[in-house]
Amino acid sequence: MGTPSVLWNITKKCFTVGVITLTVSDLFASIAPVRGASMSPTFNPKTNSLLDSLSDDRVLVEKLCLRNYKFSHGDVIVFSSPNNHKEKYIKRIVGLPGDWVGTIYDVVHIPEGHCWVEGDNSASSLDSRSFGPVPLGLVKGRVTHVLWPPHRVGSVDRKTSQNRVSNS
Amino acid sequence: MKQWRIIAKEAIARASIIGKFLCLLHVTDAYVLSSNHVVGPSMLPTLNITGDVVLVEHLSHRLGKLGSGDLVLVRSPLDPKKTLTKRIVAMEGDKVTFSLDPTRSHSSRSLVVPKGHVWIQGDNLYVSRDSRHFGPLPYGLIEGKVFMRVWPPSSFGFLGE
């Protein structure tokens, strides 16, 4: 008669741990892997096609910013792609609502409630230059620290390029 | 000393139960079912102007079971702190014809909803601010499907097509 109650206890423990993990990762912070070279050299500075998933960076994503959706220029954010909600991208905010952002072809005005995001490695990044401004409601968190690999553990800086953005 | 230790142990046990309960509450609220107060004229005559309390379920948009005609709760693309309640009119790849000003019928335009987006409109076309103003809505902004009204009690029941 001992086995069912042991099983039941294990199930209960797993469920509790799952619920707590989900809550913490929703409300406070979570850990996410960075795929691809679009944010190089900030994340994944050297990419080798072999061992890709092992050498991927792991970053800390904080969720407290989602309570009031306040962001500044140069923040690195996680958001779901406007074209495919299942995909998450990590990019840097270049423009906020009301800004004018210069691209190769023209100058774009960022509408209310949107932001302009770009990867640090502009040569291989799929970002606002291809899909336009991103609604802030799609933002899932802000990247604050690199956690893995060990020799690059540290906080992520805000980087801004003033000459590309003008606030009207 | 010993009795303090017992009291501390008891307090920690109680706090952990409350903590677990709050976590369970959050998960239920975010992933299964939540209630929402809807105010405004944009969904007349389906929802009242004075404010209805509706139940929102958060499963079908994750499973991809939404279709046109469903009432959805979405995060506003213009202000991420606000949520809107609208009806899906067309899914990705569908063609929609709309007019910004329904009082003048000849000013209509049509377009195809792009990949990963939906087209939402309020039931009251005259005052609703929806996809006709801000364009197709990314699917990722959908928060849940509105399926039942619980308040006022006189109109308690499921919200159909």
From TrEMBL, chain A:
Its main location: mitochondrion. Signal peptide: none annotated. It is found in: Mitochondrion inner membrane. Keywords: Hydrolase, Membrane, Mitochondrion, Mitochondrion inner membrane, Protease, Transmembrane, Transmembrane helix. GO terms for biological process: protein processing involved in protein targeting to mitochondrion; signal peptide processing. GO terms for cellular component: mitochondrial inner membrane peptidase complex. InterPro entries: IMP2, LexA/Signal_pep-like_sf, Pept_S26A_signal_pept_1, Peptidase_S26. It is a single-pass membrane protein. The active site is at S38, K91. The keyword Ribosomal protein does not apply. It comes from the Eukaryota. Residues 9-103, 109-148 form the Peptidase S26 domain. One of its GO terms (molecular function) is serine-type endopeptidase activity. Belongs to the peptidase S26 family. IMP2 subfamily. This is Mitochondrial inner membrane protease subunit 2. It comes from Hibiscus trionum (Flower of an hour).
From TrEMBL, chain B:
GO terms for molecular function: serine-type endopeptidase activity. Pfam families: Peptidase_S26 (PF10502). Gene3D superfamilies: Umud Fragment, subunit A (2.10.109.10). Residues 1-30 form the signal peptide. Residues 17-99, 108-151 form the Peptidase S26 domain. It is found in: Mitochondrion inner membrane. The active site is at S42, K86. Keywords: Hydrolase, Membrane, Mitochondrion, Mitochondrion inner membrane, Signal. Belongs to the peptidase S26 family. IMP1 subfamily. This is Peptidase S26 domain-containing protein. It comes from Hibiscus trionum.
